[in-house]
Amino acid sequence: IPEFTLWVMEDGKPGFTTRVVVGKPDKQTPVFSNEMQTIVFNPYWNVPNSIKTEEIRPFLREEGGWFGGGGWNTAVLQRHNLRINIGGREVDPSRIDWNRIDIRSLNIYQPPGPDNVLGNVKFVFPNKHDVYMHDTPQRGLFSSATRAFSHGCMRVQNPVRFAEVLLQHDK
Question: Which residue has the higher pLDDT, 112 or 73?
Answer without folding.
Answer: 112
